[in-house]
């Protein structure tokens, strides 16, 4: 599934960026070598980052 239709960023691309250390929306776009266009995806990417951080902190406990 696409997270960002404008830049053809798929969920797996965003997850790969986050797993590589991207902790901001900008870092995810940088990892994908693109920039936000319409910004409709920003909230979804932010939620993916937040969920990954929660999962990582729970795993650390």
UniProtKB/TrEMBL annotation:
Give the superkingdom in one word: Bacteria
Instruction: Return the Pfam families for the record.
Output: Fer2_BFD
Where the record annotates domain BFD-like [2Fe-2S]-binding, the positions are 2-50
Q: What is the name of this protein? A: Bacterioferritin-associated ferredoxin
């Amino acid at each position: 599934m696409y997270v960002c239709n404008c830049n053809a960023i798929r969920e797996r691309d965003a997850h790969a960026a986050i797993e590589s250390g991207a902790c901001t929306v900008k870092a995810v776009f940088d990892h994908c070598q693109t920039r936000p266009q319409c910004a409709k995806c920003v909230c979804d990417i932010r939620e993916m980052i937040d969920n990954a951080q929660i999962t990582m902190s729970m795993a650390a406990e």
